[in-house]
Amino acid sequence: MAQCVQSVQEFVQDSFVPMVAVLCSDEAERVTRKNNLNFAELLRPFCRLTSEGHIRDPNNQVQVVKNLRICVNNVSTSPNTASAALNPAQRRLLNEVVLSCQSPEGAATNVITAGHYDLNFSDQSLKASLPWYSAWRETLLDVSSSNNYTATTPWFETYRENFLHSMPASEHEFLNHYLACLLVVSSSEAVPVEQFLKLSQEQHRIQHSGDYTNPKWFIPNTLKYYVLLHDVNEGNEQRADTVYEDMKQRYGSQGCYLLKVNSRTLSAEDDEQIPDPWSQYLHRNNLHNQDTLDEVAPTENSPAVENNISAAEEDAHHPTDNDEVSTSLDCHPLQLDTVSTEGSLHALSAVNAQPKKSPRDPEGLVGGGGAGSHGACLTLNDHDHIRQFIQEFTFRGLLPHIEKNIRQLNDQLVSRKGLSRSLFTATKKWFGGGKAPEKSISEPKSTCGLLYPPEAPELQIRKMADLCFLVQHYELAYNCYHTAKKDFLSDQAMLYAAGALEMAAVAAFLQAGAPRPYPAHYMDTAIQTYRDVCKNMVLAERCALFSAEILKSQGKYSEAAALLIKMTSEDSDLRSALLLEQAGHCFINMRNPMVRKFAFHMILAGHRFSKAGQRRHALRCYCQAMQVYKERGWSLAEDHINFTIGRQSFTLRQPENAVTAFREILTNDSRQTATQQGAFLREYLYVYKSVIGGNEVSLPELPLPCIHSSATRVYFGHERRLAEGEKQAATHVSLDQEYDQDSAAMWCHLEEQLVASANRGINPANFQPTQCCLNSQTDNLRYPQAVVEEPIIVEVVFRNPLKVPLALSNLSLLWRFTEEGVSPSEETAEESAITNEETLAQGQMTQKDDIVTTEVIPDFPMSPEETKTARLRLLPHRTGQLNIVGVVYNLAEAADGETAPNTEGQQTLELMVVRGRQELKIQGPRLNVTKEDKMEVRHGPDHRLDPVITPPMPLMEVFFLQFPTALLCGEIRKAYVEFCNVSCVALRGLRVVSTHPDFFTFGSQTSSPLTPLSPTSAENCSAYKTKAAPCQPGSVASETLVSPKEFSRPSGVMEIPIEGGTLQPGESIQLPLWLRGPDQEGVHEINFLFYYESTEKGNKISHRVLRHSVFICASRSLSVQASACRSSVPSHHSMEDKGSGGTLVFIDVENINTSEAGVREFHIVQVSSSSRHWRLHKCINPAKDKDCKLTSRERAKLCFRATRCKPPQATSDAVGKYTFTDLNLGNEQIISSCTPCGDFFFRGCPTPDPVASAGISSRSRSHGPPVDAASDITNIVKKCNELDLNLIVIWKAYVVEDNKQLILEGQLHVALQTIGKEASSLTPKEEAQEMVLLKFKSELPPPVALPSAEMSQLIKTNLHYPETYTHPFVKESLCVVPVTLSLSNCSLAQVDVIIELRQKSTSPECAEVHSSFTWVGQTQYKLQLKPQEVLCLTLQACFLQAGVYNLNTPRVFAKPAQQGAMCETSQQTASPALIIINNA
Predict the structure, then answer these.
(1) Angle between helices 573-588 and 537-553 (to 10 degrees)
(2) Which among 783, 710, 771, 712 has a CA at the least distance from the CA of 743?
(3) Is the pLDDT score of 731 beyond 90?
(4) Alpha-helix runs per DSSP H in 702-854
(5) CA distance 11 to 1334
(6) How far apart are CA 586 and CA 710, in angstroms?
(7) Which of 230, 664, 1394, 1404 could be joined to 1453 by an S-S link, Cβ 3.0–4.6 Å?
(8) Cis peptide before 215 (omega within 30 of 0)
(9) Reported confidence tier of residue 1423, pLDDT bands at 50, 70, 90
């Protein structure tokens, strides 16, 4: 429960004070009216006594009376009977006092920490909520040191005070009955004593005649106190003193007083500022006086009166509007309003009417009696006189009178003491109190309507208890209440019993030292009796207010909250709202704060405030509850609260707050139904439109639809044109492509190659890759560069979070442009910036097209919960800095197709279209470089929406003609490419680079294309350069020397040959392009990057690039395997290549095509070779020398002889040149050294550097000590078996397609590097590596071991012997045949050779064979052969009998001479050498 400035004890004491009536003569009234006051009002600020009083109780004990206050009122005889409910005037009074007391705006914010919540309360006064602080002064002193603060609710305190004072006097209690009457007469009267007599008789008549039910008097002999009022300025002071002396003689000095007032005149100069203590009392008094003005009760029932919006509200409503408002708000507090299009806030539009002051406005009531300040004729001495008068009256008149009556009542009770209850009841009639209680005729016959006569003994006990309570004698009061309670309960007088229980509980609480605990059950019983039995909610409410305050002071917040919640009912919305709010405050003041309960009850209180017309209080309650529910997943509760806040703010003329609240509903991910969301949207649009009203210069922000700013993409340049006929446009970059990080890195690498090629192999330091499309993953730290007269396309992602469709229209971009030459840092930059916001705000379509043309999308509908992209274009016409600020559009709720097209509905729909904007705010990437970046959350800039507009640049478009999508592996196809300059600036430096440089060629630098340029005339022409050359059996291949420089491509970049090197604006050129299918089957993505520059120097953009990506499906064609072995023909028998051994080349060709592409058969039409050292000599295939045909799954084997090339002449031109040899198997020879065959050969085969290989050979020949012996020997050994022969197998394929036969051509490459090792045109598939165990201990590296396969080919051996030999074994048993063993050193180093002729085999078969054949003479030789030396040894073979023998049994071991520690390696032997021995 919210805290009060008063303590609980002070609050209860001030609620029950002695009541004093006032009767004034007319002249006395005139004297007081000089001060704009009546006599009762004159005394009111001084009614609290500043000193202590004393009385003696019946036991003659002195009782101290502290801080006593009396209540002085004019005698009013108007009929104001006590009823079970407040009358309409009292309800209106309470409504207005609550309405006039609001929380101060702009006050210091008070933050209460409750659990995990920080709740803000805007209040100027704070108080500690700790319950054990009893005195409020001490509490205020401890505020600064206490951390537990809470907020006050002054409107509740005002309501409570006015409620208690407005309660009429009741028959069952005497606390608010008058104890005394002040009779006031002016000293200027002719005969004051006569006036006193008249007033005394008037008071007696009012009290005892029975004509008046009001006012009610405490005891029959009311104290009369005679006051002579003397006007100092007008009256005769001596006469006043004489009259006063006479009064003292007549009434006694204890019963009269001379009060002197008006010590200064109205015309006197205000030389001193006199305080005005009356103002704070008069406002309340004037509100109370309204009861007399509104005595004629309205015909409506009381809840309806209260629930109507008070006339004191700032907003005036018509009755019809009021009904609509109340129906929309009179529902369950947690049920959202489903509002139709015509209802809702449209009905509240009457609120916008001019406010008019109500005649009952509190501001109009202040001052009640007329103009001027109060107490104008009173000095401070007069104030003291009045204060002294009150003290004299209380101490010398009132308190002794009360003490005397207590004694009298006590004596009556004591005289009956000791009698039993039954005897007392039986003898009641003897003592005048024995009448049976009478039933009132006007009351229903129930126990609550039981009435006692005034002289009943039970009422005398109650009177005594009330008197003791008023003078703070709480112990005696409690005992009397307790006694009375028993009597009342025994008589079943429930109203009296409830009153006694209530006051007994309060008296027990107020007893000093608390001898007994607070009997809360007394209060509960009293409340239940008042409410359920007596049906008196006024008394029940009073009882609940006291009990809740007492429970709260004892820290029992849970019990207090439960009590307050029980007191809520449907008969009074204002009371229910205030009590629910106080219950909510109880929940957050508990030891373990129940914050959600607080919020829930604040919602209920806000709803009841709204029903009671207290809109400001309702708005405050909802705002406080919102602090708890916000951003905690309570989406439905948030929607309800925001919706109500929006409505209440709108009716209170706070449209900005209303717009903010409705924005929250629409931007959250709502779980409301579509109907409810549609209602929200309509409310928002209506409020928003009323806020703008056409007066806004700048467009405000709209909440719908949501924009994913980070997903915004910006594209610079024209969107690519689609294919025109057979032309296929380059793909380039488009917004339809997804961004891929790896792909972007690949394009950046290609561009680096191009830029380096254009800058003599060096990349500039300020190189930045071209980015045509910017998104959240690209590098946006720098300002992007756009070109004037080229469009900028911004793709904005919209999301409709609602379940209702939205209709956006006139959607366009909002931009700001600064012309070139104005620095952004200058102060005038903002002034010089040009923007299109003003024209867009007015809805004009001519949006400064001379600077930037802005495209407008007329209609952009969005389905429910749809995410949709809009591509908005700008076309800049000037150079400078462009900033894309946001988007601007019209927002409306999409019309349902089912709604009837009535004119009124259409008009409403038109009104519900609002224009607004949304900014595109993009947060850059988080910085994570410096220590500060890592410690804090910092974000870098993102400039994708801030392009710099640069001068014109060339713009090229590329088209491809006859470009295939599917090729056979190795297939050669000719296509055409067209370059068009579509800008107004010439371009030069055209280059291209690709991820697959072996896929295409534009031709070599020297070869001029002999094939036709136009695509139409080249349909049936071969892509190769050919010449007629019929195949002759045994013909020798033709040779051509080609320098690789003619086909060289530094760094893979290819310059595109265009005439003149430049392409003028509007020009286009077509060039042939040869393509070769990839060697591996499958789908291949091949990327081209074209590069070009402007012919004009000094541009901000140095170059431009154009991307193209194609997908080629490669299917199988042929598989070629080739191997080479040394010819066993002795070198002196081979006439063609004297001095060097020949080599046999076997080519195995297999058709692996699966006939999917309609290929019928392949023809091998030519085999060519290219090498710097070897060449194909001729075809030695024993089969017929014409091209072989292969259908599916067939294979063929071709055999060729290869010889070394002739040693080059000592000219610099011939060094490093390749020898191309062609062996055609058909009638047509293809010149393999020209385009495209040579191009693809140099792209497809690795070409070792001739300088490096020459260096290796020269180093190996030198006899100096080697730098690295192991590597030298490795190179020597490899050189021995190196072949370096590249084969080009050219084929033709016959394909049937659409009943037409096509001829496809292609070439496959095989690189034969080593003798004896097979090579293939297909790259072997990588096999998965086997898992290797982890080794945690490092091992020593193994010694360098040369491969045995290469070491076994150091020496080439040949045996020369007669094929047959005849020997007469009869004559001579041993046959000795001379055999020559020829040893050839194939390496370029000295070789140690060991020859063993002995047979070391132990197997019996070998022993049987060798027993009749053996070598005789020297059987082991150790020789040293110089590089490439040939040595012949003569051996003797001895045979024992005739037969066929294999002479190839010598074992030859060899090793390089420089490697002493190495073991010799057994050399490969030739084929078996058979000799036939005949017997003569």
Answers:
(1) 10
(2) 771
(3) no
(4) 741-758, 829-832, 837-841
(5) 87
(6) 46
(7) 1394
(8) yes
(9) confident
Alpha-carbon distance values, 805 to 678, 860, 895, 1435 (Å): 9, 11, 8, 106
Per-residue model confidence (pLDDT) at position 372 = 55
Q: What is the mean pLDDT of residues 217-226?
A: 91
Cβ burial of 346 (10 Å; 0-12, 13-18, 19+) is middle
Contact status, residue 514 vs residue 507, Cβ threshold 8 Å: no
Whether residue 705 is preceded by a cis peptide bond, meaning omega within 30 degrees of 0, is yes
Least confident residue range of 42-51, 376-385, 646-655: 646-655
> Residue holding tokens 């299009």?
341
Cα dihedral 1465, 1467, 1468, 1472 sign: negative
Angle ∠(953,954,958) on CA atoms, nearest 5: 145
Provide the residue type at 471 as one letter. V
The DSSP code sequence of 1053-1098 is -EE---GGGEE-TT-EEEEEEEEE--SS-EEEEEEEEEEEEESSSS
613-639: pLDDT as tens digits: 988 999 999 898 888 888 888 888 888
Instruction: Report how far residue 1307's alpha carbon sits from residue 1233's, in angstroms, rounded to the nearest whole number.
Output: 13
Structure tokens given for 368: 């009640």
Amino acid letter, 246:
D
Q: In a 3-state reduction of DSSP, which class is residue 884?
A: strand
Residue pair 866/797 in contact by the 8 Å Cβ criterion:
no
Whether residue 1278 contacts residue 1270, with contact meaning beta carbons closer than 8 Å, is answered with no
Outline where DSSP puts E strands in 733-805: 773-774, 785-787, 792-799
Lowest model confidence (mean pLDDT) among 23-27, 272-276, 503-507: 272-276
Whether residue 1236 is preceded by a cis peptide bond, meaning omega within 30 degrees of 0, is: yes
Nearest one of 523, 487, 532, 521 to 503, comparing CA atoms: 523
Token representation of residue 94? 């309470």
How many residues does this entry show for the chain? 1480
Return d(Cα 191, Cα 196) in angstroms, integer. Answer: 9
What value does the mean pLDDT take over residues 343-348? Answer: 48
| Cα–Cα distance, 773 to 742 (Å, whole number) | 15
pLDDT tens digits, 1152-1185: 887 666 787 888 888 999 988 888 888 887 565 5
Q: What is the 3-state secondary structure (H, E, C) of 1127-1144?
A: CCCCCCCCCCCCCCCCEE
- Tell me: the pLDDT tens digits for 801-849? 888 899 999 999 999 999 877 655 544 455 677 888 765 555 554 457 7
Cα 1084 off chain centre by:
40
What distances in angstroms separate CA 1463 from CA 1008, 1270, 1385, 1452, 1459, one per listed residue?
A: 58, 14, 18, 13, 9
DSSP 820: T
pLDDT at 681: 85
Residue 544, pLDDT above cutoff 90: yes
pLDDT value, residue 876: 92
First to last CA, the chain: 142
Phi/psi of residue 359, nearest 5 degrees: -65, -20
Left (φ > 0), alpha (ψ -120 to 50) or beta: where does 893 sit? beta
Residue type for position 1329: Q
Residues 6+ away with beta carbon under 8 Å from 1270: 1344
CA distance 1175 to 1203: 6
Q: Which two tokens stand for residue 894?
A: 């999409």
Q: Which residues pair with 1218 in a beta bridge?
A: 1042
Work out the mean pLDDT of the chain and round it to a whole number.
78
* 1003, 1239 contact by CB (below 8 A): yes
CA–CA gap between residue 1315 and residue 1144 (Å, rounded)? 10
Asked if 988 contacts 1092 with a C-beta cutoff of 8 angstroms, the reply is: yes
Among 880-884, 1337-1341, 1423-1427, the minimum mean pLDDT is found in 1337-1341
Average pLDDT for 948-961: 91
Pairing of strands 178-186, 19-24: parallel
